[in-house]
Design brief:
Blueprint (H helix, E strand, L loop, with lengths): L3 E11 L5 E11 L3 H15 L4 E8 L2 E5 L6 E13 L4 E13 L2 H11 L7 E8 L2 E5 L20
Parallel strand pairs: 2-8, 4-6
Antiparallel strand pairs: 1-2, 1-3, 5-6, 5-7
Length: 158
């Protein structure tokens, strides 16, 4: 299971007309810890931002899964509710889940969410869809981070 962290970064951005302004932007990273998330934020933004930047905050995100698409200008945060029955208490229990989906508009975000959730066999309800403040998502791939084994360590042989 992936753990998503939201990193908020501030830096001075130069607009197309040459004016400078301070911006604060959010990015989503797949990481195993806060330290790993901060490392990934710094490594990724070094390639994207000219000059200095500050990592303002890193927080664990409540997003459990993303639905990326090649075409999609915005990231939409989608909340679904799954209703289950607590057999011990005999009551309904509502479970909230959050997803991030790339789309051009709300209608497309809803369709892509339903397509992405086609594997869920229990009834669910989409209760909200909103444009997210997240600008980009960086899933973890083994070659994203320096994965060289230090010379003093040996891999475990099966």
């Amino acid at each position: 299971m992936q753990t998503w962290f939201e990193g908020k970064v501030s830096y001075v951005k130069i607009d197309d007309d040459g004016r400078e302004r301070k911006v604060s932007e959010s990015y989503l990273f797949d990481a195993v810890s806060y330290t790993d998330a901060e490392t990934r934020v710094i490594e990724q933004l070094r390639t994207m931002v000219r000059g200095e930047f500050t990592v303002e905050s890193i927080r664990k995100s409540n997003i459990i899964e993303i639905f990326p698409h090649e075409v999609g200008e915005w990231w939409y945060k989608v909340k679904i509710v799954i209703v289950t029955i607590d057999e011990k208490a005999g009551k309904e229990k509502k479970i909230n889940n959050f997803f991030l989906v790339a789309a051009d508009d709300i209608k497309q975000a809803m369709q892509r969410t339903e397509d992405g959730l086609s594997y869920i066999l229990v009834p669910y309800e989409i209760t909200s869809i909103a444009v997210s403040t997240i600008l980009d998502v960086f899933p973890y791939f083994g070659d994203d981070v320096n994965t060289k084994i230090p010379s003093n360590l040996k891999p475990i042989q099966p």
